[in-house]
Design goal:
Blueprint (H helix, E strand, L loop, with lengths): L1 H12 L16 E2 L2 E2 L2 E10 L3 E9 L5 E10 L4 H19 L4 E5 L2 H8 L9 H13 L3 E5 L6 H30 L1
Parallel strand pairs: 3-6, 6-7
Antiparallel strand pairs: 1-2, 3-4, 4-5
Helix pairs in contact: 1-5, 2-4
Protein name: RNase H type-1 domain-containing protein
Organism: Linum trigynum
GO molecular function: nucleic acid binding; RNA-DNA hybrid ribonuclease activity
């Protein structure tokens, strides 16, 4: 409970304007063709209601949060799959933002060992790891590194927060489909 309250306090204490995934910061860490290194922390979370999410936090060299994003994965209940999809989403996100030097940090040790060993022989996540390896090959400045849960608390909190909010979004999506089918 103490860890939960600490993480909740950490999440609530982050400035809301820094966590808006639709707001692009004034100054991304790419200036005049030269790129500075950033860290993309990611973590996955699984709900008992047959869905999962990933939390992505983009930080500059000084540890300041640049962007944050929660991603919803319907019908995914395997934590390894959620973590793997979260890493792939983070790589694609940084690539789309035009950032060329990124250190991806997560607490999924098995996944990170597979990615760094370039081992895509896994029945559950092998195809996704193959995609990740292709993306890493194209983006030579991207690295994946293991960090413990304590170092990844903010991304963990983001994934948990997205998990709790996704149910509302999912119902809204269902409602839109239902209304659309009636028109």
């Amino acid at each position: 409970m103490r860890q939960y309250h600490q993480q909740l306090h950490e999440w609530v204490s982050l400035p809301e304007d820094r966590l808006n995934p639709h707001r692009v910061p004034q100054q991304l860490p790419v200036e005049d063709g030269t790129s500075r290194s950033v860290v993309c922390m990611w973590d996955g979370a699984v709900s008992a209601n047959s869905h999962s999410t990933a939390g992505l936090i983009l930080k500059d060299e000084g540890g300041n949060v640049l962007l944050a994003k929660g991603v919803f994965f319907p019908n995914i209940v395997d934590p390894l799959v959620a973590e793997t999809l979260g890493l792939r989403e983070g790589i694609q996100w940084c690539q789309a933002l035009g950032i060329h030097q990124v250190r991806f940090e997560g607490d999924a040790k098995v996944l990170i060992e597979k990615v760094n060993a370039k081992d895509a022989r896994d029945g559950r996540v092998g195809a996704i790891i193959s995609e990740i390896l292709s993306l890493l090959e194209v983006n030579g400045g991207f690295r994946v590194r293991f960090v413990g849960r304590n170092s990844n608390r903010v991304a963990h909190s983001m994934a948990r927060k997205a998990l709790s909010l996704s149910q509302t979004s999912y119902r809204l999506y269902d409602l839109c489909l239902w209304v659309g089918s009636r028109i």
